[in-house]
User: What shape does this take?
Amino acid sequence: MSNTVRFWLMVLPGTVFLVVFLLLPLIAIVVFSFWRTESYTLIQDWNLDNYATIFSHSAYLTFLARALVMATCVSLVCLAYAWPVAYFIVRYGGRYRLILLLSTAAPFLTGEILRVAALQQILGPIGVVNMALTRFGFDPIEALMYSNMATGTGLVYLWLPFMVLAIYLSLLNFDFALLDVAKITGAGPLRAFVEVTLPLNRAGTAIGIVLVFIPTLASATTSQFLGGPDGALYGNILARQFGSTGTWALGSAMGVVLFLASALALVIVWRAVGDLRRSGIVIKGAPKP
Amino acid sequence: MSDCMLRLQSVTKRFGTTMAAESVSLEVGQTELFALLGPSGSGKTTLLRIIAGLDAPDEGRVLIGGRDVTRLPPYRRGIGMVFQDFLLFPHKTVAENIAFPLKMQGKSRAETADDLKWVSQLVRLTGLEERYPHELSGGQKQRVALARGLVSRPSLLLLDEPLANLDRELRKRMEVEIRRFQLELGIPFIYVTHNQEEALTMASRMAVMREGCLEQIGDKLALYHRPATAFVAAFLGSPNTFEGDVVGVEDGRAEIAWHGHRFWSRAHDGLAPGLRAVCYVKSEKIAFASSGAALAGRLRDTIFKGQYADYLVCLDDGHEITVSAAPDLCHRPGEAVGITWAADDGDAFPAVGKE
Amino acid sequence: MNHRSGFGVQVLLLAALYLFLYGPILYVIYVSFQIDSIWPFPPTLTLEHHTDLWQRRDYHAALWNSVTIGFGTGLIATLFATLAAMAILKYRSPGSGLVAGLFLAPLFIAPILIGISSLMFSRTVLGMPGSIFGATLANSTYATAFALLVVLAQFARYDWRLDDAAMVFGARPWRTFWEITLPITWPAMLGAFIVSFLLAFNNLEISFYNLGATPTLPTLAWGALRHGISAELYALAAIINFAVFALFTVLYLLLRLGTIRID
Assistant: This one.
C-alpha cells in the first residue's frame, strides 16, 4: 500500500463528512435560492424572483451596505489593535507567549450570547457605566448602548482574538534577526518595519482580516442585542427569513448573496497580498530561481 | 558472491521527476561493513529506506538472506537500523528504547533481560537504563541507538549517517567501536554517509553514489587509488584537477598537454588524441623533486594540518597546485620548487560538457 | 518613537486588551454574587442567583443538551482532524493542500451560513427535522477546522520519523500508533477535543437553526436576553465562564505538556 493510498484512506472520513455536511448544504441553498416558498414549503419552480427581490428593494441593499461598512470598520479596528498586541506577545512574551495568546482566545469560547450579555451589563441603560454616571451627577451616555457604535464594540470584542491569532502565528515564523540586519544596514525602526516586518507578515495579516471580516459581515446576534431598533444588519434580515416569515427561498438567495460578498472580500484581500514570494512564502514545487 | 546477505536488483525509485535511485544493483556479503558514500541528495538515504522497507521501489527487487522482501513492510524484515539524529523514543527510558524490538517480537521477560544485559555490555551502556533520552549526552544517545539496532540480533544493520551529529573526537571513537561491533557480531552493516573519511576508515567495501546511480562499487582502496569514473576520482581525496588536450594514448596511458606542460597519466575509456581530458592527481601523490621535475613553480603558502601539511605551489603561469606531504619540509614561501608524480597516480577522463 | 516608549505603549495596549476582554466577564461574575445587580456597590454577597438557577428545571435539560452537543462535536471533530493532520504531516502527499483547504474552509464561512444551509439541507434533502443530532453534525463541520488548527500546531513538532523507527524495529502500524504516536501526541488530541467541545457547547448561530425545539444553554440565554438581562443569566454566565477558564487551564497545561523534548 503506497503512502498516497494511506493518505487518502486517512483523510477520507473527514473529507466525506465535510462534503456531505458542509459543501452539499451550501450547494443546496444555491439551488433553493432559485425556487420559491409557499406557506412554509419549498416549491421547485425555477425562477430569479428572489434575486430580483433582493436587488430591487433598497432595504435589502441598505442592510447589506451597512453590514459591509460595519465589517470593514470592525476589521480595521481589530487590525490596528491586534498588530501591536501580537507583536508584543511574540517578541517579548518569551516563555509566557502561549498563556498570553490563549488568554486572548479564552473569552471567544464562552460564546457570543454570554459575551453580549456581559457587554449589556457594562454598557446598557442600566449598565454599570451609565449607573455610575448618574450616581455621580452626570447625564447617561445614550450612544453606549443600542447604537452602531455598541454593535461595533461588541463585534470587536467577539472577533479580535481571531486577528491576534492569525498575526501571532505569522509572526511566530518570522525571523526577528532580519530586523537586526535591516538596522545594521541603515534602516530606522519604522523603515525596518515597513520594509521587512510588514511584507513578510502580509499573508498572515490578510488571513486575519478575512477571518474577522467574514463573520462580522454576517453577524446577527450582536446587532440584535446591542444595535437597538435601527441597528439591524444584513444578518438580522437573513435570520428573519428562517424565523417568523418562513421565506426560505428568499433566505437562501440572501445567503448566497452573503456568501458571494464574503468570497469577493476574500479575493480582494488576497489580490492585495499579491505575489506570495514577495511575502516570503515559498510554494512547494515552484521553480527555483 | 556465495555468502550474499543483501542483494538489490535494478532498484529504481522516482520522486516526481527526480531519480532517487536508478537501476541500482548491489550485493553485500555476510560479514561486510559496506559503506554507501555520496554527496547530499545523491539518493543514498533513499536506497537505505528502500532496503529497510520504509520506501517501496518503483522497479527492482530487494533480497535479504536470499528471500525476496520487496513487498514486505519494514516490521517484517527483521533488520536493525540506526537513524540519523538517533530517533530515540522520547517518552521511553533507555531500557525501554533498547528493548523495543524485543517487545515487538513478543519476547519473554527473561529473554528480554538477557538480551538487554548482553547488548548493554556490548555497547558499554550499563548504568544508564532508567534515564530518558533527553538526559543523555550525544555519545550516550548514539550508543542507545546502536544497542536498539543490535539487540534483536538482526540479519542486517543499516546505519544512516549515524555519526553526523557527534563532535570530531567522539566520532573517531565511535568509528572504531562500530567496526568492533561488526566484527564481533559477524552481520553485515550497511553504512550511509557523506563523509568520505568515515567511509574510508570503517568500510571494507564501499560504493559511491551520484544522482541515484552507483558510480563505482568495490574495495575501498581500489576506489581510492583506482577510481573508475571522473566523479569518483574528483570526490575521493582532495585531488588536483588538470584540464588539457590528449596528445597521445598508448598502453592504457594518455599523454596530456596542459598549459604548455606535458605529462602522462592513466587513460580511461573514451580518450583519444585531440579530445579534451580532465586529469585528477591526489595531492598526496605529488612529490617535491629537485631534479627531473615535471612542473616548476614557487611555494606560495604552507597550510599546517598536524600529521601532514598542504603546500600551495604557484606555477610560473599562475596555476596553483596543492601538494600534501610531511609537515616538516623546510620550504619557505617564495622558494622555487619542482613537483612531479608517477604516471599511474594520475587518472585522465574525457572532459564532458565542454569542447 | 524610541524603543523604550514603543515597548511601554505595547504593554499598555496589551493590558488594555485584557481589560477589554475580561472586564465585562469579571464584572458579570462579580454581579452574579450580589443582591443588587444594578448598582452592586458596596458589595452584598449572596448565592441567591446561583441557587435560583440551580432550581430551574429547564436549565437542567438545556445543560444536558449542550453537553451532548459539545461531546459529540468534540469526538467527531477531534477524530477527523487528528486523522487528517496525521495524514497531511506524515505522508506529505499531493492533495494535502486541497484537503487542508477543505478542512479549514469553515473558518471562512460565516457561522450563520453554516447554520441555515445545514438546516435547509437536513430538512429538505434528508427529511430530518431539527434535533440534537443535526445540531451536532452542523457544529462538527465548524469545529473540525479549529480542531485541525490545534492538532496541526502540535503535530508539527512531532518527528514522524519516530514512526519509521518503530516500524523498522517490528511494530505494525497500529502498534506504532499505540506505542509511539499516541503517547507523545495525546495532549494535542485532548486539546482539540476541549476547543471543539467548548465551541459547540456555547454555539448559538449554528445550533439555533438545527435544534428544532430542543433547548440548549445558549438558546435559553438568547431567549432570556430578549426580555432584558436577568439575575439568573448572571449566574449562568458566571458558571460557564468558570468552566471555560478551568478547561482552558487544562488546555494550556496540555499544550505545555505537548512539547515533549525530542532532542
